[in-house]
């Protein structure tokens, strides 16, 4: 597992984690599962919503983390899932995909995969 942390201007702490997928490795692929969120939970033990309204600033930082990880692990693929506010809500997934697509190195692409997204080297299966 690889971990990154960052703090927004308002003081909210975030973590970003990459977990190696053993199942993909068994199939001969280098795939990491990626997630990011706040370090604080809500009163029910769930993830706390920040309502910071700075998604582009946060996405910029997350994208820099992904780019850093890819530079240290060339040829690797990354799988992530964008949470929904309600069933069928794809706004967050579309935002992530559009932003990440524009910021990735030119030899990578973002593709949908079974409800998730995969960042992979172009021409990968």
- Into how many domains do the coordinates divide? 1
Task: Measure the end-to-end span.
Answer: 24 Å
Strand order of the largest sheet: 1-2-3-4-6-5
Q: Specify the biggest β-sheet.
A: 6 strands, mixed
Structural shape: globular
Unreliable residue runs: 42-51
Mean pLDDT: 81
* Alpha-carbon Rg, integer: 15 Å
Beta-strand residue percentage: 25-35%
The secondary-structure class comes to alpha+beta
List the total number of helices: 3
CATH architecture: 3-Layer(aba) Sandwich
Q: Total strand count, please?
A: 6
The helicity comes to 25-40%
The SSE string, one letter per element, is EEHEHEHEE
CATH topology: Aminopeptidase
CATH class value: Alpha Beta
Explained architecture:
The protein is α+β, with helices and mostly antiparallel strands. It has a single domain, classed as Aminopeptidase, CATH 3.40.630. Helices cover 29% and strands 30% of the residues. The protein has 3 helices and 6 strands, in the order ββαβαβαββ. It has a 6-stranded mixed β-sheet with strand order 1-2-3-4-6-5. Helix 2 links the parallel strand 3 and strand 4. Helix 2 (55-72) packs across helix 3 (91-103). The longest helix has 18 residues, at 55-72. It is globular. The two termini are 24 Å apart.
Break the fold down into its secondary structure elements and pairings.
Elements: E1 2-7, E2 13-20, H1 22-26, E3 31-38, H2 55-72, E4 77-80, H3 91-103, E5 108-113, E6 116-121
Parallel strand pairs: 3-4
Antiparallel strand pairs: 1-2, 2-3, 4-6, 5-6
Helix pairs in contact: 2-3
């Amino acid at each position: 597992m690889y971990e990154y942390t960052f703090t927004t201007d308002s003081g909210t702490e975030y973590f970003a984690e990459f977990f190696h997928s053993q199942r993909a490795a068994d199939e001969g692929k280098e795939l990491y599962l990626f997630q990011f969120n706040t370090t604080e939970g809500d009163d029910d033990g769930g993830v706390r919503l920040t309502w910071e309204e700075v998604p582009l600033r946060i996405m910029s930082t997350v994208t820099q983390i992904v780019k850093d990880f890819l530079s240290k692990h060339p040829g690797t693929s990354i799988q992530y899932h964008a949470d929904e506010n309600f069933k069928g809500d794809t706004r967050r997934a579309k935002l992530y995909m559009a932003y990440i697509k524009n910021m990735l190195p030119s030899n990578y692409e973002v593709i949908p995969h079974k409800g998730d997204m995969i960042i992979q080297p172009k021409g990968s299966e």
